[in-house]
Amino acid sequence: MKTTKTLLLVLILCVANQVAAKEPSEKDYEKIAVRVHKSIFSIDTHNDAALRILNPKGRYPAGSTGQVTFDLMQKGGLDASVFAIFVSQGARDDSSSAKAVTYVKEQLAAMKAYTQSRGDAALAQISAELKRNKKRGVTSVVLGIENGYAIGKDIDNLGYYRREGVRMITLCHSKHNDICDSSTDTLAGAGGLTEFGKAVVERMNSLGIIVDVSHASKNSVMQVLQISKYPIVASHSGVYAVNASPRNLSDEEIRGIAAKGGLVQIVSLKSYLSSKPKEQVSVKEMADHIDYVKNLVGIEHVGVGTDFDGGGGVVGMEDASKMRSLTVELLKRGYSKRELKLFWGGNFMRILDMYKKSK
Ligand SMILES: [Zn+2]
Question: Of 47-56, 113-122, 318-327, which range is least confident?
């Protein structure tokens, strides 16, 4: 009798062991990802959807849905995005600069009005507002500006943008500007930050606008790190050591950003992520960049900035409705719930809350 009992126990233990050792199926991972997204807060720190939603120059065909709508975000378990008002770099004379300022102010007002006109979205500036919106089932819009050309020649425009609720400004775009050198301009620049640029960074610090160094040259990034009192963010960039694109960050920049408490938000733009043919660049390649930053400086310094509607999107995560596939990939790589919580939004909310809310 005793032997039978022992045998039975051994048998039960063997079966239990086999069950525990069984790899979760794709469906299991998807179920876990759904649960994770319900219990954490997720933010994409860069999209250019405002450009498509507001369609200022009629550059999108009527009725095109693009990669980011509030519906797609809800479907993908994405709670918030930084919607950037983008202005391309034009001539730097007074009148062209003034035109850029007027354009951005108009677009910003239009994006705010659009958000406020919707029942399924609301503006948010700090973590308490983001969480409150999620609780009532509403998607959050955090306002940003891509390209400091939007400031023009008048630094006081920063105060205007802050009062209008802007939380982050990308210092430059693909060409040098009055603030700093771009990583993709082949002409000689200022060697990093200009004198005006230094004043801009200081004013952004004092106003509570996050300094975004995506697109900036290495010299620009290192000089911003020297003078910024607050952590800085690269809202949509990759890792140079993983793929040698001028838009990606060197280890020195990543270490510098992390040492100051800042963030490297991994982009989903294929040519920044990999030199493979585009149809082969997937969430896996994106996760390789995320792993790299995590291993170099820690999970507290990495997140995601898709650049949807601005060139972003990989196989498996083609639009905002498919954000969970990145979570599935990270779960397969052993990321814990705590790590996913920081990665998806905890880190960025920490930075948002370092600055005070505008009145
Ligand atoms: Zn960009």
Answer: 47-56
C-alpha–C-alpha distance, residues 136 and 68, integer Å: 20
146 alpha carbon – ligand 1 mean position (Å): 7
62 CB neighbour count, 10 Å cutoff: 6
- The string over 235-249, giving b where at least 16 C-beta atoms fall within 10 Å of a residue's C-beta and e elsewhere, is bbbbbbebbebebbb
CB atoms within 10 A of CB 326: 28
Instruction: Tally the residues of the chain.
Output: 359
Ligand 1 centre to CA of 71 (Å) is 23
90 and 149 Cβ atoms separated by less than 8 Å: yes
The DSSP code for 278 is G
CATH fold group of domain 41-352: TIM Barrel (3.20.20)
User: Beta 210-212 vs 166-170: how paired, if at all?
Assistant: parallel
**Residue recorded with tokens 């000689």:** 188
* Per-residue pLDDT tens digits for 183-215: 999 999 999 999 999 999 999 999 999 999 999
Q: How far is the CA of 236 from the centre of ligand 1 (A)?
A: 7
Distance CA 169, CA 86 (A): 10
Q: Give the dihedral sign, CA 209/213/216/221.
A: positive
Q: Where are the domains of the chain?
A: 41-352
Reported as a single tens digit per residue, the pLDDT across 283-295 is 999 999 999 999 9
CA of 214 to the centre of ligand 1 (A): 7
275's tokens: 């030199």
Q: 322 CA to middle of ligand 1, Å? A: 21
Give helix 251-259 / helix 283-297 axis angle, nearest 10°. 60
pTM, entire model: 0.92
Give residue 268 CA to ligand 1 midpoint distance, Å: 11
49 alpha carbon to ligand 1 midpoint, in Å? 12
108 CA distance to ligand 1 centroid (A)?
17
